[in-house]
Amino acid sequence: MNDAVDPEDRKIITLARSARARNGVPEGAAVRDETGRTYVAATVALASLHLSALRTAVAMAVASGAGSLEAAAVVSEADALPDGDLAAVRDLGGPGVPVLLAGPDGRLRETIAAS
Hints:
Low-confidence stretches: none
CATH superfamily: Cytidine Deaminase, domain 2
CATH architecture: 3-Layer(aba) Sandwich
CATH class: Alpha Beta
Oligomer: single chain
Strand order of the largest sheet: 2-1-5-6-7
Order of helices and strands: HEEEEHEHEE
């Protein structure tokens, strides 16, 4: 993994990577709220409900009472985030929340501002 990544950001990348691997799904995600709590999720793919890992992590943060987000991470083979993922982060965290996009190996590929 990239040593230039902040240790707290490396932690949420590692959590997202673990969720993806543990559940055998296309994406894993983790978000960190304003108090430092983390929420980890994987892709949800049911017949009646489909959510990206990041939207699921944001929903878990909201359901747990988070007031805002500091950062988010997604681990995926995809080169881009699904439509609407940045909007979900922005809805809770405001514009400018960094979303770290990493590959399955945990290497940071891109940091996107949720603007």
